# Entry
Amino acid sequence: MHADLDRTDLRILNTLQREGRLPVVELAERVSLSPTACQRRVRKLEDSGVIRRYAAVLSPAALGLQVQAFVRVSIERQSSAATQAFEAAIRARPEVRACYVMTGDLDFLLHVWTADLQAFAEFSMKVLIGLPGVKDVRSSLVLEAVKDDSGFDLSA
# Structure
């Protein structure tokens, strides 16, 4: 745990992870601070980068997204230019929710959402294969999410 975070900071962070729109007065009440002291701590957590942003958690199904997949991508050569070209192309694709540079037998791991299998097949076979330097693409479709939590356990 970050050395500068005390128990009160952790309680603030735990609460905001669950309820990011909580008014400062209510947050202060929950963590036993005055609203002014609470606001000061929240601002410090924001300014230091501990809190990066506030976001709504959306339902993929409500947005018409039915297919979730993890896609492993290997690229031809490990040159900086090839990697940068691939990364730029991936950043522009709305289907890709996350892209990670990996160690081991693959270069990138993509987290992808599409409306249906046809859209996923098109993305996979037409878009991905055609991107700069792509050598191999292997996909795994998600059947069920056993755990899907974007927050961190900050139990103090």
Summary: The mean pLDDT is 93. The beta strands are 67-75, 96-101, 108-114, 134-141. DSSP finds five helices and four strands in the chain.
